[in-house]
Queue: 3 jobs
Job 1
Amino acid sequence: MKSEHQPLGVAAPGLDQASGVAHRFFTRQGGVSTGLYGAMNTGLGSQDDRQAVLENRSRAAAALDVAPDRLATPYQIHSAEAVVVDAPWGPGLGPQADAVVTNRPGIAIGVGTADCGPILFADGQAGVIGAAHAGWKGALTGVLEAAIEAMERLGADRSRMVAVLGPTISPEAYEVGPEFVARFLAADEANEEYFRADGPNGRARFDLPGYIAARLRAAGLGTVETLALCTYADEERFFSYRRATHRGEPDYGRQLSAIALREH
């Protein structure tokens, strides 16, 4: 059993070294939700008990030394939209976007995922942070680059940025059809390297983590890390939309990945 004093979530070395930054890739462990949502479901769009979700979000905020009402997450729509957070909003009242950035200390920004890639960004020297939700559509259409550019408008320098990809579905669990592959090849024939033709029934496997990491490196960031954690395979620690779908479950939880600038 986890000690209640054990820190929630997973930390990344690169972000741990960023000056003035607190962060966590939270897991499904350490919350109060029950059943399918046990235990740290932070997804406001799920059918979980709302008070349980709010308590879980409050625990996440506390782990970042931020008040519960200072946690800002967007209404995610698988877009390439990035927004600047100048002040937090109420739970579920965020703008439609898939990346959030800020230079305001004491505000935690984050994204929820359940197979898609959560990316946390920081330029500790400039005091600018970001969080992005990148499924295949967001990654392909530019949500990562949108987050980086929004951070630059606040004074960040991409050569100093640290970007870390958190728990994401691995290619071993991500089978796709030919139309999916065709979409990526139409965008860039070099994308063929992110597909393996060894899935069941001749289907391809897509390397979403590899694709996201490559886009981040191509953008010229100073440091790019990936935690290499698979949401589908690690049921004890992570929610997975695809795993829930394969089992015919009616809903699924979401884990939060969040980052904050410490108040001095």
Job 2
Amino acid sequence: MSRLLSATSPVMVMVLAALTALGPLATDIYLPAMPAMGEALDTGPDQVQLTLSIYMAGFALAQLVCGPLSDRFGRKPIMVIGIALFLVASLVCALSTRIELLWVGRFLQAFGGAVGPVLGRAAVRDIHGPTEAAKTLSYIASTMALAPAVAPLLGSGLLLLFGWQAVFFFLAAYAAIMLIVVVLLLPESLPAERRQSVHPSAILSNFRMLLGQRAFVGHTLTNAAGFSGLFAFLSGSSFVLIEFMQLSPPRYGLWFSMIVLGFFLGTLFSGRYSHRLGRERLLSLSTVLCLLGGGSMILLAFNEIFVPLAVIGPHMLYMAGFGILMPQTMGGALAPNPQCAGSASSLFGFIQMTVAAAAGAVVGQLHDGTSRTMALVIGVAGFAALLSYWLVARPADMQPVHRDASVSAWK
């Protein structure tokens, strides 16, 4: 099989990007349909928003499982199982008639969809060295940025033409295509000699080792804080822009594409200047951009400037910063740990998604009908990303990191 698709070919990067896009696609495509889903299932915005938080919680838990399993059995078989589960769960969501059944479907969908981002990151670390991994992840992020850019527009079209269930039928079709590609074309990236034990003591030992690394903890917390700002926007934007500011679903999709443009430009900048500027400078710049974006959104919201541009403009700046931050923090967390890249990617994703789910739940539960709650959470997220980098991750960046060598814990 490996001769069908070279591990270092551009096509391989595109396949890994398509796999990694499972996560943002499953979250972004149904955002314009959330108000309509609430009406169809006879429930409120807080209950519909829980489908997003439940998805992220399931995503977080699944990562603790699929990463270590892939360290033992290889990336490909775990990918196949996960994508198949995502397909079935998408059909459950599409056929749901009660909000409780939709919660179950979203949880299972997350459990299957987690294999894309987790094992995509791990495969990049398998194939590339610690320095090249961040650059490759930047380009994968740039490619996969097409998914959240197109997803709300596609979701709006499916909603208007066929109803909200069509969104989940589309996700099932996407999963079916990816399942065929993975089975027929994707080579196994993890050599047999680097397989790890799945005994609980071995997994816990790896997790303890990772949590003892300043580099891993610092970059993971920085990423989690930045991602929670993105997730706060995902949780609240449809209610703020569609219900409060009276945008139509198609116009919401167009405004949302501007957010993705900011992210896309950030990832391109990160990939282009990864070697020239280095991780330390890029993360310093990115965390400041996140803080400026979140802070300006707070100022506009609490001065009662309730227009779409007052939300989209600041969040474009935030997302440009996060586009730089995301691949650099992934590279910084995974680079020292080639011997357990799957476990490192799992723990990284678990922390990221747990923090993000909490931020989304806050937005959903405290939503006051305006943009204030969402803006406040995004601003706090930007500040937390800045603090996490400067107080924890940055000292590790200033230490020399040797290729494929574990970083000393907290020296």
Job 3
Amino acid sequence: MSRLLHISASPRGAHSESLALAATFLDAYRAAHPDDVVDTFDLWDGTLPEFGPVAADAKMAALAGLELSAEQAAVWNGALAVVERFKSYDNYLFSVPMWNHGVPYVLKHFIDVVSQNGMLFAIDPSVGYTGLLSGRRAAVIYTSAVYDHGVEPEFGRDFQESFFDYWLRYSAGITDIVTVPLRQNLFSDTADNDRAAAHALARDAGKSF
């Protein structure tokens, strides 16, 4: 039995293309792996702890081996709980819509909370970052409404997949990655065909994941 965590970065519910593709993936996954545990972490549910000045000071104090204040300890323990929740799963599905050429801010918030030295990654002056989640797999659904590969810069640039893929590989150490893209340019007349193809890809990926 394996444990899969779906991390949702879309707030759009039934209107979300990325969540619709995630549902297709998960339906196929559950059919192929009926004994596996599948959970969802909705990053918009309000449970992500703040990671502001107190958390930043607590992080640096913890790295230096200093004693944390009561306020720092409370904030730091909240962050560590998110890290441990994330690490307790064997594999991951991420639904990642493009926002302003990058990822939604709530996903960056999640990354900033869980990306902790000695927990998600190690860093060495000679080799740089080494992610500590090697052996796990990730499936990532990327959607965009204007940007598509090959478009002119006036229609966007990809700081979404380039950023997130780098984080998975070098901060988390997850290199076994399946992607399901839906680059649905609003000015294209192939939207329905593109959506159908993306759902077919999501279904196949869920079966074989």
